Automatic annotation (TrEMBL):
Statement: the UniProt record of this protein carries the keyword Membrane: no
CC cofactor: Zn(2+)
Catalytic activity, reaction form: Hydrolysis of DNA containing ring-opened 7-methylguanine residues, releasing 2,6-diamino-4-hydroxy-5-(N-methyl)formamidopyrimidine
Keywords noted in UniProt: DNA damage, DNA repair, DNA-binding, Glycosidase, Hydrolase, Lyase, Metal-binding, Multifunctional enzyme, Zinc, Zinc-finger
PROSITE patterns: FPG_CAT, ZF_FPG_2
Species assigned in the record: Streptacidiphilus cavernicola
Family: Belongs to the FPG family.
Record-annotated FPG-type domain positions: 239-273
Pfam families hit by this protein: Fapy_DNA_glyco, H2TH, zf-FPG_IleRS
Protein name: Fpg/Nei family DNA glycosylase
Keyword DNA repair: yes
Domain Formamidopyrimidine-DNA glycosylase catalytic: 2-104
Amino acid sequence: MPELPEVESLARFLAEHLAGRTVERVYPLAVSALKTYDPPPDALAGRTFTGATRHGKFLDLDADGLHLVIHLARAGWLRWKEGLPELPPKPGKGPLALRVRLAGPDGAGFDVTEAGTRKRLAVYLVHDPSQVPGIQRLGPDPLSPEFTPAVLAALLSGERRQIKGVLRDQTVIAGIGNAYSDEILHAARMSPFRPAANLSEEEAGLLHATVVRTLVDAVERARGLPLKDLKAEKKSGLQVHGRTGETCPVCGDTVREVSFSDWSTQYCPTCQTGGRILADRRLSRLLK
């Protein structure tokens, strides 16, 4: 799933490549992905892109005041094309969900795709990004100056949930998903099942510094890379997430996993849980 660093990289790339380019035509191919109908997608035609930014994991492309907002969900991606085919794409053919063709002789544009059968990709066309329900509910952005240690401590205070779930909650902190929450907690040497409210002021400060450093480092590693290489770069930079059974690069222990219904968390017992290995959620309460 693309998270804050990948969406930030997409926004930076598109801000550079879309600036001043005019939309020739929009092809909405997956009806399930389109979450708004007024204005319709073809209202983008003839408008010029003036900016690209990010709200948490939402990508926001500004075209003369109309905002094309995209949430890539678990299996979505955006692919830049220097030369799109002349023939219109056919709906229902492959993973293509949306195509935006730019005016000009080069035929440039981009495709939004979604792999797999579970379709969660979301595309909105709105006059104001705050009209998107998911953006309305976002917590503070961890890369903004407003995200201070005191702000994080206040967010954690009174939280009965485990810290892993709190970090993944977009209404608490915007942009962190399953992968980077694992990475942050590993770097901070914290159990993913630690109750958030139990963190001391010092531990909350450490967690804040680790959140910011982990995300900034990921964004910097991706700087200047072609979009096609961003996914591979993300995977190569992960220490524990997606590395069940491999060796922890910090201590040499074996990376372990706890699986849930539709997601999993990876952790290092030596670095994070005092050497204890958890088989499932029933044992997670033992970690305080």
